[in-house]
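[Meeting: bench + compute handoff]

Bench side (C.D.) handed over the final construct sequence. Compute side (W.E.) agreed to return the predicted structure before the next meeting so the bench team could plan truncations. Sequence as handed over:
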Amino acid sequence: MELTHFDKTGAAIMVDVTEKPETLREAVARGEIHVTAETMSQILQGTAKKGDVLGVARIAGIMGVKKTSDLIPLCHPLPIGKVNIDFTADEDHLRVICTCTVKTAGQTGVEMEALTGVSTALLTIYDMCKAIDKHMEITGIHLERKSGGKSGLFVYREENHA
């Protein structure tokens, strides 16, 4: 498989999508942040000094999705139709799991937008809780699923990355 973001001379290029048909596209990305018990408690009880950690992180994730083409040099600006940022608190493993779903009708996919949304949301949790816990660790950011476009359906398989 050849890389699409390089021309014949090896120079970086933005892929020409003008001839591609517009299709419904969706991408789901996931990642997590590991925290201490005290940090988890403050996140869940809403007692962190900077306020509603997950509420602010949700807005930050949405903003990250919308700004993806400003951050990733060869990424096309896209009309985003839907963004959903969900958090799951896994108290047993002291982690907050973030899932970002992005939808559009367009000529290129929204994988980068979903990955940027997760990353931005998790970085915001770190920022809001760093006074409590500088040992937080953001891990496992990956594409869970994508649909639409020429390549069709992709579903992440854990066994391929173990």
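W.E. noted at the follow-up: The mean pLDDT is 91. C.D. will use this when planning the next construct.
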